[in-house]
Amino acid sequence: MSSKYEHFENKVEEQLRSTTDDHPLGEKGGWHASVADAHLANINEHETTVRKALRAYPYAAIWSVVVSMSIIMEGYDTSLVGNFYGYPEFAKQFGSYDKATDSYQVAGQWQQALGSSPTASALVSATLNGYLLQRFEFRSVFMGGLVCMNAFIFICFFGTTVELQIAGQFLCGPMAFRPYLTAYTNMRLAIGQFIIAGVLQSLLGRPDQWSYRIPYAIQWLWPAPLMVAAFFMPESPWWLVRHNRYEEAEHSGKRLMARAEKPNARKVVAMMIHTNMIEKEITAGHSYWDCFRGTDLRRTEIACVIFAGQVLAGTSFAFSGTYFFEQAGLNNDDAYKLGLGETAIAFVGTLISWVLMRIAGRRTIYLWGMAGMCACLIIIGFLTLAHGNAGIKWAQSVLCVIWLFFFSLSAGPIGWDIPAEVSSTRLRSKTICLARNSYYITQIVGNVVEPYMLNSIEWNWRGKTGFFWFGTAFLTFVWACFRLPETKGRTYEELDLMFAAKVPTRKFRKFQVDAYDENVNIIDRVKETQ
């Protein structure tokens, strides 16, 4: 603990010692906490660096790694079918012969259905998730999703018709637990995509149905060990606080802390209670409808557009670029090798984004990243107009890789980080469910139009598809300029107060917040610095 923190601790305790009994935050049975406890935890949070946080909360970091293994599974699953479109044995089994290209092609309508069915499933499950997490513990919902996922993989594995594949993909859509990790999620997605790219590359020369069945079977490696881990996982202290189970929240918090930090668990829970009380004062409800009322409407808008922006930036086109590489003119072997390298670039880009977020902030990185992706997309489109140059196919493919690097620096990790930060803790599960649903709806539209734009037996736009996604990415960039605030360095309490005070988007960095000034109204605790 730093000397600066100790100074503030002594000062706050001295100021509130005589009035602590008049400022109780939570009293249940023999459990008690005060505003002073919450204030001290808030000061400590501002003082804490990444290194200090890892020392204080090592088990929180470990459990985050364990739980986010499910995101590797999502990265694997969601990239699997999109990469199968150009896979020889899969196209032969579920497609038809195209004389013009002397190859088998999965028809556009079946690509639509295969790509959209898991997204449609996720749309339903994410909506249901908002209700489940309000009533049941996070751990129970997590384990239930894993059980269902394990069962539904059988349909994909044994399905020998395209209709059965669609049914399997619908039932194996991303389950309810997945949207709750932030920037770290993008790395786990990249790891999953790296694994599937390596698996597909190694099986590319296999001339039978096992070339696509083995990748399906590998999905069974994840659910069983994750269910065992989930059984021992501590429940979220935030969920317990919202259900007035303060003593259990403190016990759960201690399970996430180092031994030396455990005496501060009550202060941390007090800060959670204080945040929850502020949010109840700002908005009393916690239904889906409340996400569209008052100041929460703005927060929901930001979360939804940021998530949808991942698709609008061009993920349907460039994120899993193997099929585009083939349509651009690369052979199967080169396309899948480049796809493998692309996933490694995504991993590195996410690592760099962690450093950038500590230096530059969310808004700046997002804007520059979106601008870079816009540039890549429009250049890909214009290169298509240059006929007769054999190097164009490689230039377009490399630009897809550069696009993915920009995505992994910005919209990829930050697209998970910002929705978790801008939503209030009371409405977070529902706000993120709505935001993730905006992603799924946008992705369904992308999955409907993308196969027709790329497929050689449909519209055959090939690289001209870049023009379409440049338009959507540019509109997202313009929106972010005027509507995306900077959330770097703000606690949940401070963000609650800033949204309640309707701080202008471009002035978020210039406002100072005193969340613990109990003598003034909530919105008066936010002041612009000179």
Q: Can you describe this structure in just a few lines?
A:
The chain is mainly alpha-helical and 530 residues long. Helix content is 69%, strand content 4%. The chain has a two-stranded antiparallel ribbon.
Task: Report on the architecture of this protein.
With 530 residues, the protein is mainly α. The protein has a domain at 68-233 and 287-483: MFS general substrate transporter like domains (Growth Hormone, Chain: A), CATH 1.20.1250. 69% of the residues lie in helices and 4% in strands. It has 25 helices and six strands. Strands 1-2 form a two-stranded antiparallel sheet. It has a two-stranded antiparallel sheet with strand order 3-4. A hairpin with a 2-residue loop joins strand 1 (24-28) and strand 2. Helix 8 (138-158) packs antiparallel against helix 12 (223-231), helix 15 (265-282) runs parallel beside helix 25 and helix 20 runs antiparallel to helix 21. The radius of gyration is 25 Å and the shape is globular. It starts with a helix and ends with a strand.
Binned, the helix content reads: 55-70%
Strand order of the largest sheet: 1-2
Strand coverage percent: under 5%
Determine the CATH topology of the domain at 68-233 and 287-483: Growth Hormone, Chain: A
Quick check: average pLDDT? 75
Give the number of DSSP strands. Answer: 6
Number of discrete helical segments = 25
Q: Give the CATH H-level superfamily of the domain at 68-233 and 287-483.
A: MFS general substrate transporter like domains
Separation of termini? 31 Å
Q: Compute the gyration radius: what is it?
A: 25 Å
Query: What is the CATH class name of the domain at 68-233 and 287-483?
Result: Mainly Alpha
Q: What's the assembly state of these chains?
A: single chain
Q: Poorly predicted ranges (pLDDT <50, ≥5 residues)? A: 1-9, 16-22, 157-181
Task: Indicate the CATH architecture of the domain at 68-233 and 287-483.
Answer: Up-down Bundle
Major sheet: size, sense and barrel closure?
2 strands, antiparallel
Structural category is mainly alpha
Cα shape: globular
